[in-house]
Specification:
- One of its GO terms (molecular function) is aspartic-type endopeptidase activity.
- InterPro entries: Preflagellin_Peptidase (IPR052218), Prepilin_IV_endopep_pep (IPR000045).
- It comes from Rhodomicrobium vannielii (strain ATCC 17100 / DSM 162 / LMG 4299 / NCIMB 10020 / ATH 3.1.1).
- Keywords: Cell membrane, Membrane, Transmembrane, Transmembrane helix.
- Helix content is 80%, strand content 0%.
- The chain is mostly helical and 161 residues long.
- The chain is built from six helices and no strands.
- The chain has one domain.
- The chain is elongated, with a radius of gyration of 17 Å.
Amino acid sequence: MESSLTSTVAAALPVLLVWAAAVDLLTRVIPNRLVLVLAACFAVFALLAGLDAARIASHAGCALLVLVCAYGLFAASLLGGGDAKLLAVASLWIGPNALLPFLAGTALAGGALALAYIAADFAGDVLRSDADTRDRATAIPYGAAIAAGGLAVMPDWLASI
């Protein structure tokens, strides 16, 4: 990275990923505006970092591939729409050099998150009486797993820039 301004824009990735995770945990929604801001910040970052057209295209290709796959998971009701968009825009930033570790870290964090939700649901069943009819959320806020995967590859991603 060349300048402190480039570093500042690069800092948008972890900050916005953590923000998306927090919003998803609290509301179970990842706002489209947040995804658009992440994409816009990447465009600014690419310009400031002096990425050439081929490198930008490879990052965009990663995002498109992930979006198509994530849309398939969304169509099968295995992933939320906001999660699919966040995963794609994070892949735009991550690019081809760290994409597989990012996806692996996201999958591992997602598995841990799912196990935590299953355990909490089981504990709730043990403590809940038949008369207790509280609604239970069944969706897992996968934005937190995406953020964890992104943060896990951050050192490698920064080194590849």
